[in-house]
Structure of Cobalt import ATP-binding protein CbiO:
Amino acid sequence: MSHPIIDFADVYFTYPDGKKAINGITFHVRHGESVGIVGANGAGKTSLLMLMTGLLLPIRGEVHVGGVPVAKKTLSVIRQKIGFTFQDPDDQLFMGTVYDDIAFGPRNYGVGEEEVKNRVMKAMEAVGVMHIKDRAPYKLSGGEKRGAAIAAILSMEPDILAMDEPTAALDPKARRKLIHLLKGFPYTKIIATHDLDMVLELCERTIVLKEGRIVCDGLSFQILSDAQLLEQWGLEKPLSLQRCPICGTKKE
Ligand SMILES: Nc1ncnc2c1ncn2[C@@H]1O[C@H](COP(=O)(O)OP(=O)(O)OP(=O)(O)O)[C@@H](O)[C@H]1O
């Protein structure tokens, strides 16, 4: 097995208003793994991703990414190792054109303009957003914004992709396209989502959160097939594993 690339050791996080969001989480992710983070609303999925990317810092415990402790002074190194897409792409896209949004990260890290151009082209090619490169991000559709936001993290050439609800607000065709795209990426992937069918398809491992704690960590197929357990955590079997109560055939 390959080495751990993300390591959480007894991590706690409380928001300034006193809300305890993460309550003693320990796990690690190995290089090349794809992990789905699931749980009911408010379980702590977004908070966990934010701790992983240094957008939040633990009040207790330690997070390491690529062997580097996540702390104020290491944030610039951490952001190069792990690319984070927000639940709402509007939180990530703020430049005048898609091209400039994708170029922003590498430019900010002092990458030369020729290399920036290479990276932007490569990222746009990979995600299929070349045709919208000169458009204003705020005028794009949800699927196009999602594509631009993913390209914007790929141009940083991260080792890890951390994504918060990547299929939210996508129509079925755009969702399918995104899953196909993500399947082809060689990166370590951490995907926080309510889309359990996507987890089943993309992630060999699933971590279930409840009230800021890990309540289950194992093979996606096993976890997501267990309707009784899922119900305890406020979740439902993925549609692709459900059967029609009348004819017994699998739902699509
Ligand atoms: N900025 C904040 N200030 C105070 N409490 C917060 C803040 N953000 C989140 N919380 C609380 O922390 C807990 C975990 O929230 P988080 O957004 O991490 O959950 P989630 O699993 O991503 O939820 P969802 O599925 O609804 O997106 C919730 O109880 C939430 O109300």
Observations:
- Strands lie at 4-14, 20-30, 34-38, 60-65, 68-69, 82-85, 160-164, 188-192, 205-210, 213-219.
